[in-house]
């Protein structure tokens, strides 16, 4: 059984629980993220296309891959 990455993230969004395409929900979560908070995005795959979008919008990210079907990305405003 995979264990989730231990983090002090202020907010958490589990994209695995979203029906359909999660991009809009992810963007809403990061755009409403205060400058002093961190969002932990949980997904079943590495969201590589999201990384460029995060960089373009001024966010930093740190991906963690505790198992083959679990990705946890810490997202913070730069």
Provide a brief overview of the structure.
With 78 residues, the chain is α+β, with helices and mostly antiparallel strands.
Describe the structure.
With 78 residues, this protein is an alpha+beta fold. The protein has a single domain, classed as Translation Initiation Factor IF3 (2-Layer Sandwich). It is 23% helix and 33% strand. It has two helices and four strands. A hairpin with a 2-residue loop joins β3 (59-67) and β4. The mean pLDDT is 92.
Strand order of the largest sheet: 1-2-4-3
CA-atom Rg in angstroms: 12 Å
Task: Write the H/E string, N to C.
Answer: EHEHEE
Give the mean pLDDT. 92
CATH class: Alpha Beta
| Second rung of CATH, namely the architecture | 2-Layer Sandwich
Largest sheet: 4 strands, mixed
**Terminus-to-terminus distance:** 33 Å
Strand content: 25-35%
Tally of structural domains: 1
Low-confidence stretches: none
Helix share bin: 10-25%
How many DSSP-defined strands?
4
Class computed from helices, strands and strand pairing: alpha+beta
Number of helices: 2
Give the CA-based shape: globular
What fold name stands as the CATH topology? Translation Initiation Factor IF3
């Amino acid at each position: 059984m995979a264990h989730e990455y231990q983090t002090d993230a202020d907010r958490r969004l589990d994209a695995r629980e979203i029906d359909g395409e999660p991009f809009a929900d992810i963007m809403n979560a990061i755009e409403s993220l205060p400058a002093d908070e961190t969002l932990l995005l949980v997904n079943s795959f590495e969201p590589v296309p999201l990384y460029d979008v995060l960089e373009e919008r001024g966010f930093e990210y740190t991906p963690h891959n505790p198992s083959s079907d679990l990705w946890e990305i810490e997202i913070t405003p730069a």
